[in-house]
């Protein structure tokens, strides 16, 4: 059971984003706000539904991926990005490869059958630090930067900076940014119903419990990954010296007829719990 801390889960929360964007009209609204010149009229989901099934609640599971295609067959992948980890270009590369391999090209088809795709990252921070509201990735050869020299490969990437100044933005873009930043949207706006949905989710105890559970699991994974990386780095960096020290310490403790469990606990404490007990036990096994 999770204690409700009263936190408001906004549109940028993974669960809330997935729930709100399950409505195709909402996806269409966001796409036409960001890409108004495309005049997208109809969309359908391009992939089977990926759902949150990690927590046993009866609330409705939500779509985590937002890969859709329009009436012309173009693929759109919309992602919410709240973590400024510096790996956005690599994520783009990964998502593009997944789209191309799973959604656009069948085995034995020629490359000219690749469908066009657009990846959109809605960021709660400025991903490149230039202050632009909307960044567009374009591909050019070095020394050939004219628009007519642009390489067209059918893949486009857009980054939305929710911290940017919106004075010169369209009214729809202004409202999208308000929604991302949990600011009030006018009742006359097409985004008002989306904001109301966010409030409904926050008012539902069952959904709030699921969100808190998911956030805790995500935090646990992140902490575990950081600790494992820290331990691996320290072990690798100090392996030659520290592992020898550990072996010597274990030998000394064994000569005192101290049991293995106590030895493992002592070594674990001596190294500030940085060395996993599983590693210590492996060393002990070798020494037995």
Which radius of gyration do the C-alpha atoms yield? 25 Å
Can you count the beta strands? 6
Structural class: alpha/beta
Count, helices? 8
**Poorly predicted runs of 5 or more residues:** 48-64
Order of helices and strands: HHEEEHEEEHHHHH
Helix content: 40-55%
Strand order of the largest sheet: 1-2-3-4-6-5
The main pleated sheet reads as: 6 strands, mixed
Would you write up a description of this structure?
By secondary structure, the chain is of the alpha/beta class. Helix content is 45%, strand content 11%. A 6-stranded mixed beta sheet has the order 1-2-3-4-6-5, sandwiched between helices.
Layout of secondary structure:
Layout: H1 14-20, H2 24-34, E1 43-45, E2 67-70, E3 75-81, H3 88-104, E4 117-123, E5 134-137, E6 155-161, H4 171-180, H5 192-203, H6 205-255, H7 260-270, H8 277-287
Parallel strand pairs: 3-4, 4-6
Antiparallel strand pairs: 1-2, 2-3, 5-6
Helix pairs in contact: 6-7, 6-8, 7-8
């Amino acid at each position: 059971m999770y204690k409700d801390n009263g936190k408001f889960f906004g549109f940028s929360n993974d669960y809330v984003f997935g729930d709100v964007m399950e409505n195709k009209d909402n996806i269409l609204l966001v796409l036409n706000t960001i890409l108004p010149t495309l005049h997208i009229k109809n969309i359908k989901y391009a992939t089977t539904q990926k759902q949150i099934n990690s927590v046993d609640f009866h609330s409705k599971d939500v779509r985590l991926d937002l890969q859709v295609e329009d009436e012309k067959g173009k693929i759109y992948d919309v992602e919410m990005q709240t973590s400024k980890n510096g790996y956005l270009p690599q994520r783009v590369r990964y998502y593009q490869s997944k789209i191309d391999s799973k959604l656009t090209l069948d085995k034995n088809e020629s490359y000219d059958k690749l469908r066009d795709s657009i990846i959109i990252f809605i960021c709660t921070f400025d991903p490149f630090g230039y202050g632009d509201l909307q960044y567009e990735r374009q591909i050019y050869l070095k020394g050939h930067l004219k628009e007519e020299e642009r390489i067209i490969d059918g893949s486009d990437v857009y980054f939305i900076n929710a911290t940017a100044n919106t004075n010169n933005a369209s009214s729809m873009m202004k409202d999208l940014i308000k929604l991302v930043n949990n600011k009030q949207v006018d009742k006359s706006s097409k985004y008002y119903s989306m904001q109301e949905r966010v409030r409904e989710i926050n008012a539902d105890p069952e959904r709030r419990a699921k969100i808190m559970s998911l956030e805790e699991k995500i935090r646990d994974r992140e902490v575990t990954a950081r600790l494992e990386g820290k331990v691996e780095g320290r072990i690798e960096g100090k392996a030659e010296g520290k592992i020898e020290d550990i072996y010597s310490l274990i030998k000394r403790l064994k000569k005192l007829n101290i049991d293995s469990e106590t030895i493992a606990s002592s070594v674990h404490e001596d190294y500030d719990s940085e060395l996993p007990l599983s590693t210590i036990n492996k060393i002990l096994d070798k020494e037995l």
